[in-house]
Write a structure and sequence with these properties.
Length: 419
Amino acid sequence: MLWRVLYSLAWYLVLPWAFFYLWRRGAKQPAYRHDWRERLGYYPSRPTAPVIWLHAVSVGETRAAAVLVQALQQRHPDHHIVLTQMTPTGRDTARQLFGDHPNVSFAYLPYDLPDAVHRFLRHFRPRFGILMEMEIWPNLIHGAASANVALYLLNARLSEKSLRGYLKTRCLVGPAMLKLAGIAAQGEDDARRIRQLAALNPIVSGNIKFDMTVDPSLLALGQQWRQQFGQRPVWIAASTREGEEALLLDALAQVKLPDNSLLLLVPRHPQRFDEVATLLAQRGWTTQKRSAWSGDTPLPTEITVLLGDSLGELAAYYAAADVAFVGGSLLPFGCHSVIEPCAQGIPVLIGPSSFNFADAVREAVALGAIIQCHTATVVVQEVAHLLSDTDTRQQMRAAGLAFVGKHQGAVQRAMALLP
């Protein structure tokens, strides 16, 4: 109890800085300056139907939650689902996925302050709640338990690095986790680490992201783009993080790709779109921004980079590419999801950092669906090889599809925990 009091006090002390941070982020992403009251637990309206609450912190978790939302709607057709996020990009993703659905609404999860949590729970009065991945907010979890709201942790993953961090605050995190009504871990290693952190026995459901379905309209959009590219070899650098674009461009200056190759460069965070555009201009790359290209006219052959400065179209970029590099892996960010490109049958390359998807990467590499490279130069060398080798691409395509198919069914296993 003492640790939670100190934790809450720390939150109150840093609260002005938290809002200052939102204001500063709002200079590049104005959405950060909107709906501030929700971060303190004040909301404009409440659904009239009984509420199921699902928290997916940002973009990746929100996309993964889409199949879970569908399963919840089938089981509880008379309920309204409140989907909470912490970031504007996550909220925008939710709107793209469910914006016109009458039984799904969106809100920011409040900061982990006791009174803000109380207002949130009192306002929505959820029948039960779900936290995606490893969102451990002590006041939120204790508040839900006090309000008799069963709270579940689904698709939980815990790397060795994250475990070491959590163990430093075990006296705070452990008691909170014991208040959870149930936990479904992605893999056996995740379950083992969770048991190290708290005296719990999670089920192993697999990764819900394997059950994601690609919007057919995005696949059609990507195929349309591909027609506009002509016969050019196309590769994508997806979800790149700060510093990775420069590494790839340095490598491209040293490695020759097939003639007239086209790079689809899609930074992970929208606030970096202009920064990456400036970098490309400084390096002399002839670039077309997606935001300035309709997609229904041929892309000029002199364009060497299509900058993906759009939201919600990653699946379309994948559908238009022959080979995919998944970012967040050249530098120690732990890699972003390799499942989506594998599910589309695209050969996947990643860098050395993959702790966020360690089990999936290890298996996919063993199956031949993914090639893990130690440097950006090796990544580009493998891109050059794969763009010129149809047979190897086809073998990796088959391996990727088999890898994804093997792990589907996680949603049904996780749903077994829920009311």
